[in-house]
Amino acid sequence: MPELRKDPVVGRWVIIAHERAKRPHDFKSEAPPRQESQVCPFCEGNEHMTPPEILAYRDYGARPNGPGWRIRVVPNRFPALKIEGDLNKRGDGIYDMMAGVGAHEVIIESPRHHVSVSSLAEENLREVLWVYRDRLVDLKKDKRLVHGMLFKNVGEGGGASLEHTHSQLIVTPIVPISVWEEMTGALEFFNYRGRCIYCDMVQQELSAEKRIVLDSPHFTAFCPYASRFPFETWIVPKTHASHFENIPKPGVDDLGQVLHQVLGKLELALDSPSYNYIIHTAPFDHSELPHYHWHIEVIPRLTKVAGFEWGSGFYINPVPPEDAAAFLREVEVVPSYAHTALRERAPGSRLQPHASKVP
């Protein structure tokens, strides 16, 4: 018998279709990715093919906008929003509008043409997380900007236009509706119970154990009770925090390992599917919120959203999250070490961020 499950944060209902249940091997891999041109603009040596970098983690002696980097941030060549200009908020009758002011940046996660995150080292992912934090902290200073969303698209089904592993940051002058819904639902729970719903969710999932994918000192990864998609996985901090950019060093160290494990499990279990991950964090113009909790949502693209989903707001998930979590728990990911993804550092070398202004 199918089940209707209610998401406790936003109130969205999901259909868990037990009778249509699929096992991991029932999901066919998508066709191989389309062939790109032989020259990749994100590979080391092709820095001239991107806009001038905003930030880079480099080896000592390496010059800006040239080789010698480990992670590089550049403006998107075709930005959804642009940093220049005033908001110019205005109305047209019942309609509201403003200028498309914001930021759209690309975080190139490795100088090598890696396609799979599981081929990166955990240390590489930790540096990526530090770059995420650095960019949010910097853009938060711009009073025109309100919210930063970090996300990664993998594979054609996930919306990736280039194979080379990268993620993106889009900063907007308004709070996205999905974040607003989460904040509103979390606030209603807080006003009623006096507790953070995400903190309660972590404790209940750890107690029940049925939907846990992995547990670490600082984070819990689980398939949410009302999963919208097969093998959807959330990574939630155990300690309450509303803003990702305030993550401390022990959190970054642990999250690099957790993110590597979760993505590696999905790639191994599901034959390298397309997927997205999104970091949900509180708006810049809010101080620490007792009711909201930053987290990462990882969404494999194994099923299609069609007419019923668009028309009703329901999602149909053919894999119960309990089954998905049980399967992922059994998948072992062999740790990758720094030399597989980061260049050998000379004795005495250390991180050397280089920052420049967006032209």
Automatic annotation (TrEMBL):
Pfam family, one: GalP_UDP_tr_C
Listed SUPFAM superfamilies: HIT-like (SSF54197)
Annotated catalytic residues: 166
Galactose-1-phosphate uridyl transferase C-terminal domain residues: 189-298
EC number: 2.7.7.12
GO terms of molecular function: UDP-glucose:hexose-1-phosphate uridylyltransferase activity; zinc ion binding
Binding site for Zn(2+): 40, 43, 113, 164
Entry keyword annotation includes Lipid metabolism: no
Segments forming domain Galactose-1-phosphate uridyl transferase N-terminal: 3-176
Sorted UniProt keywords: Carbohydrate metabolism, Metal-binding, Nucleotidyltransferase, Transferase, Zinc
Superkingdom: Bacteria
Cofactor list: Zn(2+)
A Gene Ontology BP annotation from the UniProt entry: galactose metabolic process
Cofactor note text: Binds 1 zinc ion per subunit.
Similarity comment text for this entry: Belongs to the galactose-1-phosphate uridylyltransferase type 1 family.
Protein name in the entry: Galactose-1-phosphate uridylyltransferase
